[in-house]
Amino acid sequence: MAEQKNKILIIGSLGMLGCQLLQIFTKDNNYKVIGWDKEEIDITNFIKTQEKILSIKPDVIINCAAYNNVDGCEGNEELANLINGYAVGNLAKIVKELGALMVHYSTGYVFSGGGKSGYTEEDVPVPISKYDKSKYLGEVELQKNTDKFYLIRTNLLFGPAVLVQGAKKSFVDLILDLAKVRDSFKFVTDEISNPTYVVDLAKATKKLIEGKYPYGIYHITNDGRASWYDWAKEIFKIAGIKKEIIPIKSAEYPRPAKRPKNSVLINTKLPKLRPWQEALKEYLSE
Question: Active-site residue among 67, 105, 131, 283?
Answer without folding.
Answer: 131
